[in-house]
């Protein structure tokens, strides 16, 4: 046995176990001294590997069914008695071992940014955050079943007792938090889709929901299907909750199980961000969001502006027709398809006549441009068209907009990334891969702004930009 292991086996402080006494208010108003053991940060002898299981599990699972696949019986429990009774007595203990707690703390340390507003749901007397989080975070709120436990949680700045199985709503304003966490408790939720929708509501655009679980639970209170599944199936269940509650990026699934002394419990983490998981299937959806030029112009409308306006009218009409046809689930007739081809040909002709994007320019400040890598424009929306490899398939393209950063990758190779100067609605990001007549492919992105108007539109699109990994500058595009 190594000297460190020998010391750890005789001195629990090396492993970060500290004896404490909590003063807890009893129902009669008297204080009661409760001895507890608290884990403090000390990773002696432990390591924390992180393995991404996402692709392997998704490939094994196959595509999600169209409808929510879990029947009501899946959410029944052995003990259907009032949860308030079960959780009425505070439990000042840990529900996973020291290594598992440390693994979750270690993950939070590298995945939650300083200055974040954090909400810990299904919380208790501990939240497993790093010890310095209360000083580094803007806010740490907690919501859980037992008020006495929450009162003893030293890391919470505020708390609100809540039984999510009775009322799956959260007592917080829209877009209040950057991160929401949930530790070894998702298996007790009997209305998970409603809870996930609520978490999405209180998260800011791009905010993260981090759920961690192990192989321990109260069997009488865990939902039926959880007890019949293994650890990896649990991960897919949580990923399914994200998928069917909608409004999330594709969940990432990690095996975060620690190794070393006192690390018997596995740890799995499923995380997703508030945003869109997939690009829209219809190019028409972005046409509807384009705004026609308005306001004062430097000159009377000429042929170029007239051509652009007519093209916009045709695109808007086609968009409405396509979306209406999709909503009716009707088949396209040959005459309808022929008419659409004629209209699209006319749009291409008009766009060629208009040149570039057709957007008006304001004095001294470009609002659109053509670069070696594509075109860009911004008015009430930010529009980017990037040239990509003709062999690129849609599944190899990733577009993300999180906390003010836009990142575009093809085959995991950076294509374009930058910090946005404009305030945008990241959850409304839309993108499509279009095939051009000459066989080239173009990646079209549309990102609506939160605000527009005089003065605000004079800001560039990015404060910093890298294209193909190299720093890029252009007037009006980058500050």
Summarize the structure.
The chain is an alpha+beta fold and 479 residues long. The chain has helices at 3-10, 54-61, 83-86, 98-111, 133-136, 147-151, 192-202, 224-227, 231-245, 284-287, 303-328, 334-354, and strands at residues 17-25, 31-39, 51-52, 117-121, 139-144, 158-161, 177-183, 203-213, 252-255, 268-273, 368-371, 374-378, 381-388, 397-402, 405-410, 413-420, 430-435, 441-448, 462-467, 470-471.
What fraction of residues sit in β-strands? 25-35%
By DSSP, the count of extended strands is 20
Radius of gyration, Cα only, in angstroms? Answer: 27 Å
Q: What CATH architecture label of the largest domain applies?
A: 3-Layer(aba) Sandwich
Mean pLDDT: 78
The assembly state of the depicted protein chains is single chain
Q: Within the CATH hierarchy, at the fold level, what is the topology of the largest domain?
A: Rossmann fold
Distance between the first and last residues' Cα? 60 Å
Number of domains: 3
Output the keywords.
479 residues; alpha+beta; Rossmann fold; Immunoglobulin-like; 5-stranded antiparallel beta sheet; 26% helix; elongated
Topology:
Elements: H1 3-10, E1 17-25, E2 31-39, E3 51-52, H2 54-61, H3 83-86, H4 98-111, E4 117-121, H5 133-136, E5 139-144, H6 147-151, E6 158-161, E7 177-183, H7 192-202, E8 203-213, H8 224-227, H9 231-245, E9 252-255, E10 268-273, H10 284-287, H11 303-328, H12 334-354, E11 368-371, E12 374-378, E13 381-388, E14 397-402, E15 405-410, E16 413-420, E17 430-435, E18 441-448, E19 462-467, E20 470-471
Parallel strand pairs: 4-5, 4-7, 5-6, 7-8
Antiparallel strand pairs: 1-2, 3-9, 8-10, 9-10, 11-12, 12-13, 13-18, 14-15, 15-16, 16-19, 17-18, 19-20
